[in-house]
Amino acid sequence: xxxxxxxxxxxxxxxxxxxxxxxxxxxxxxxxxxxxxxxxxxxxxxxxxxxxxxxxxxxxxxxxxxxxxxxxxxxxxxxxxxxxxxxxxxxxxxx
Length: 95
Hints:
The protein has helices at residues 7-19, 90-93, and strands at residues 21-40, 46-61. By secondary structure, the chain is α+β, with helices and mostly antiparallel strands. It has a two-stranded antiparallel ribbon with strand order 1-2. A hairpin with a 5-residue loop joins strand 1 (21-40) and strand 2. It is globular and about 35 Å long.
């Protein structure tokens, strides 16, 4: 989150930057954190994330993303989804 941003504003901005999709958050699917959401950066720094997972409605598809973190974008069926860096529950992702 950027200073002064709400979680809803952050998800709208992040989704736009990383996917090119304009979204509206419609509900909170869950809040996750703790040991299971620990991440070690390449420089050795460790963090434990608190993650709010939003259900969003796509309002517009601008067709491209604006950051260099995204290499490709596609939708996955539940049984085809690759592993994620953090253990988001599939039941929330595919509800």
